[in-house]
Amino acid sequence: MTNDNFEIMESIPYEDFIFGEKNKSLKLHLSPFFKNRFKILTVSQKATFYFFVILYMLGPIIIVPYFAHKFDNRYLLFGILISYISTLLTPRTAMHIFFITLFCIFFWIISGFDIHEYVTFFYFCALGGYFFYQMADGLEEEYAKQNIIKDYNLFYDLLLERKIFISRKKV
Q1: Element housing 30 (H / E)
Q2: N or C terminus of the chain with fewer C-beta within 10 Å?
Q3: What DSSP character marks residue 166?
Q4: pLDDT tens across 72-99, in order?
Q5: Nearest of 165, 134, 151 to residue 40 by alpha carbon
Q6: Measured in Å, how far apart are the chain's first and last C-alpha atoms?
Q7: Closest CA to 163 of 38, 63, 31
């Protein structure tokens, strides 16, 4: 959850947290079991979140068939599936995109870059699905953290329920 330069704190006064958050000595972490973070978002934050979710869900369904029709290749339609499968791997690690990118760069060096080749096209499908999923998930978490910091009652409630953790830089 934290790296070696930080240690988890059990509790802290809200005012001390705000001061530490401003000077970057304290960090707020959401528990992985905190599933209700969407409920504390404002209406505009929810709209932004839904915008990226819609891009994630509808983007491949609109864009991939266009390229399949343009290149007259039905096999490119597997890009829809690849776009969604790439998001299943994202909670585990972001390193899979790095290794896929290295493989594709090696492939492009050998055979040349061509968008209608399967490897290249499926790579961009996976990258697009990964990007929009990460944007939606990251925005939801960042907005939840902002709202927790703004409301001290919510801050204390979630701290007591162990839904959030505070970490401090080691001295």
Answers
A1: strand 26-30
A2: C
A3: E
A4: 888 888 988 888 887 776 655 567 677 7
A5: 151
A6: 19
A7: 31
